[in-house]
Amino acid sequence: MSKTLYRKLVDSHTVAQLDEDNVLLYADLHLMNEYTSPQAFAGLHERGLATLYPGQNVATVSHIIPTHPDKFRIIGDADSALQASNLKRNCDKHGIPLFDTNDRWQGIEHVIAPEHGMIRPGMVVICGDSHTTTYGALGALGFGIGTTEVEHLLATQTLVYRLARDMRIRIDGALPAGTTAKDLVLMVIARIGAQGARGYVVEFCGSAIASLSTEARFTLCNMAVEAGARGALIAPDETAVQYVLAHCPDLAGDAGLKARALAHWQTLFSDPDARFDIEYDFDASGLAPIVTWGTSPDQAVPVTGVVPEAANASEARALQYTGLASGMPLEGLTIQHVFIGSCTNGRIEDLRAVVDVIGERKVAPGVRAMVVPGSGAVRDQAEHEGIAAKLVAAGFEWRKPGCSMCLAMNDDVLAPGTRCASTTNRNFEGRQGRGAITHLMSPAMAAAAAVTGTITDVRRLLADHA
Ligand SMILES: CC(C)[C@H](C(=O)O)[C@@H](O)C(=O)O
Ligand code: SF4
User: Fold this and answer.
1) Probe ligand 1: pick from 131, 342, 405, max atoms within 8 Å of CB?
2) Is the CB of 422 under 6 A from ligand 2?
3) Per the domain annotation, does 225 fall within a domain?
4) In what residue span(s) does the Aconitase/3-isopropylmalate dehydratase large subunit alpha/beta/alpha domain sit (predicted)?
5) Which residue range(s) make up the domain with 456?
6) Under DSSP, is residue 36 helix (H, G, I), strand (E, B) or coil?
7) ipTM of the predicted structure?
């Protein structure tokens, strides 16, 4: 029978079919953070249960960690310090590998897992975090779960999993200069809506997707959850295979293992006559840089556009919150803060894009601009390439890795009324600080905002370089 890639991944990990809609699904890898794991461990301890396969779990301190550049990081907030020390104690007790607060490779889970070769095509990867959809970029089924499910996963390495429906989004055409995967995914979310993929696993395909680097694909799959998707997938191709081999020396160095892996990965695609429940087609060739104007990631328009009419009460409320009026152009809007980082756009290619845009320019007066790399490895690489030095010379703050101002659970919090150009994934009310306003955009666009002090069409600055 013809199958979608999604069904192939589910079927190869199904331990038991529970009923028509639910299976018991095996997880190759379970990732954890300090934020969603404490109650799960407490539950295990209450029942006297152990972790079934500790080596198939990995934890990191990510959400509450301070990012100030001190050599040794001390978590000042007592509750946050307790979360981190609890994670350490639980990982020690259960024999689970941990990227601890001062570990050189610590970072956001979705940045560190692929860079350490933990994600390979065909895997099922689960984490108590919604952006686990990121791993679809490598042909792995990743999705987020809640705390009670984390407990079940630790105890059994399985999960009761409700099957999703299949959506295919085909995007053809070449991305124009100055646009990125971030613009592509913001455009898709704006078109299908923040609930448009609810209940579906989305498979992305088409020539635009094929031309994206693996890191750009991470951005795309990461944000698919902002359209409500329960997973995102891209069938592994040569780009994905090369990324995985480069990050998995053990696999690349073992000829037998590598041959078996490659043979398996070649089977990971949707059969030509596989049936999708819904299909969309988009064209990337007319894409412009996209900016959000509201408080939901689907409230977005091209930077050349204007704030739309509020179509309903929630859009009216969004306009009130963001202090914008229908008909106002987005371009030229003054910002006070720039945040570059997160599991969406805190990778090395994102930072390269930023320095490409700023060139010799400096952060505009009155703007505070912060770069928080997604992981210790990204930070090291950026320092090695001279990116960090350029950022600092331009007036950016160069921070230590973590989620930081993506959700402001540490001390990187915006003051009320502050308007921020942000490379993150959620512009919800209060996400970066109570009363703070978030405009989602690409790293290149955030860099343009940093040096001009306003929302700016990055294509103009790039044209100046040419
Ligand atoms: C804290 C965590 C549960 C949450 C998520 O699941 O995504 C966070 O990472 C976020 O981005 O809002
Ligand atoms: S960087 Fe942001 S989106 Fe990603 S895991 Fe952290 S808080 Fe969530």
Assistant:
1) 131
2) no
3) no
4) 8-453
5) 290-465
6) coil
7) 0.98
